[in-house]
Amino acid sequence: MTDKIKHHLSDELLMGYSAGTLPEAFSLMVAAHVSLCDECRARLEAFDAIGGALLDADAGQVELEFEDKALEAVFATIDGSDQPKTTAPEVTCSVLPAPILAYVGGDVSSIKWRSVGRGVKQAILPTSKDASARLLYIPAGAAVPDHGHAGNEITMVLQGGYSDEMDHFIRGDVEIADEDLNHTPVADMNEDCICLAVTDAPLKFNSFVPRLLQPLLRI
Ligand code: ZN
Ligand code: ZN
């Protein structure tokens, strides 16, 4: 990877993934991003560690009064250089991360694109119906029509890049949009853009956050 990922997953998404409470489409998004992003993979491991600690506690008298120090210790352990670094799943396609390859059933040439107009194409991935996942193909320099969002939409760039009213996004970057955002993504001029996009209308991220973790993390 030449350029650094600037736009990352939220704690809510990583915690939801760790707790196994995300819709399948959102789990796919987290798995795909984490396979490309060392930073979020480390954060996910921290949440996994906290979840494990909670499970280890006596369920009958769990006192969720972890001191800040305890939490810091968990993160310090994760950040420590003596901590073995887990390696990303082996990627056998330069565009599609391993978690997406499984849904496509092959590499990028196996994607069954359907035109949605103006050269923009999409391919719906087979996930459970509580949320949807699709691959988007935007020709270089082309725009996805201005749109709002009935719920939450997360987009991650897999090839090329795009810009909208918020910022510029390149491979691995995620953009998290909600009802408040109207945007017009425009693909970079030098390369066709391929993205993974997941939407959850009308669910809210809040409902995915494990209640056990809320007092602990004060979110
Ligand atoms: Zn990240
Ligand atoms: Zn959007």
The ordered string of helix (H) and strand (E) elements is HHHHHEEEEEEEEEH
What is the count of DSSP helices, taking H or I runs of 4+ residues?
Answer: 6
**Alpha carbon gap, first and last residue:** 33 Å
Mean residue pLDDT: 81
Query: Judging by the overall fold, what is the CATH architecture of the domain at 106-217?
Result: Sandwich
Stretches where pLDDT is under 50 for at least 5 consecutive residues are 202-212
Sheet bearing the most strands, described? Answer: 6 strands, antiparallel
Strand order of the largest sheet: 1-2-3-9-4-7
Helix content: 25-40%
Radius of gyration in whole Å, from Cα? 18 Å
Characterization of the model:
- This protein is of the alpha+beta class and 219 residues long.
- The protein has a domain at 106-217: Jelly Rolls.
- It is built from six helices and nine strands.
- The protein has helices at 11-19, 24-36, 38-56, 68-79, 98-104, 213-217; strands at residues 114-117, 120-125, 132-138, 153-159, 161-163, 168-170, 174-177, 186-187, 193-199.
- A six-stranded antiparallel β-sheet has the order 1-2-3-9-4-7, covered by helices on one side. Strands 6-5-8 form a three-stranded antiparallel β-sheet, with no helix packed on it.
- A hairpin with a 2-residue loop joins strand 1 (114-117) and strand 2.
- Helix 1 (11-19) crosses helix 3 (38-56), helix 2 (24-36) packs across helix 3 and helix 3 packs across helix 4.
- The longest helix is centred in the N-terminal third of the chain and has 19 residues, at 38-56.
- The chain starts with 10 loop residues before the first helix and ends with a helix.
- The model is unreliable at 202-212 (pLDDT under 50).
- Bound molecules: zinc ion (ZN) (2 copies).
- One zinc ion (ZN) binds at residues 147, 149, 153, 177, 183.
